[in-house]
Amino acid sequence: MKLTRTLLASALVALLAACSNGAQDSAQDAQKSADQAQQAAEQAQQSAAQSPAAAPAAEQANGAANAAGQAADQAQQAAAAASSNAPANSSSASNAASQQAQNAADAAKDAANQAKDAADKAKDQAQDQKDQSGNH
């Protein structure tokens, strides 16, 4: 009986640790996405510096990068909550925090993609304006 309880307790601890690790992974993914969004926004700013026509797309990229950063922060907070809840609370609290971290990571990825799209648009607009001014 003692061995069964020990095994069950070990399994529960392993399960809670896995949930916590999932939240940490999601938070890391969100941070990577936020970094990518920031890089895309910087590229868009460079394009806007070359061509004023690219400025609106650069603004969009900056907004998306900021959204990705906020989502990454939320993922980090959810991961911290999952980690702190894991030893003391039920697995449902840890699962909820892990899910929040995953949702925030997904939001960061979406925002990073929006920033990349806006940066590409800014580059295209800058190139179009360069081409047009070169043809005149």
Automatic annotation (TrEMBL):
It comes from the Bacteria. The keyword rRNA processing does not apply. Keywords: Signal. Coiled coil: none annotated. Residues 1-23 form the signal peptide. Residues 23-116 have a biased composition (Low complexity). Residues 117-136 have a biased composition (Basic and acidic residues). Residues 23-136 are annotated as: Disordered. This is TolA protein.
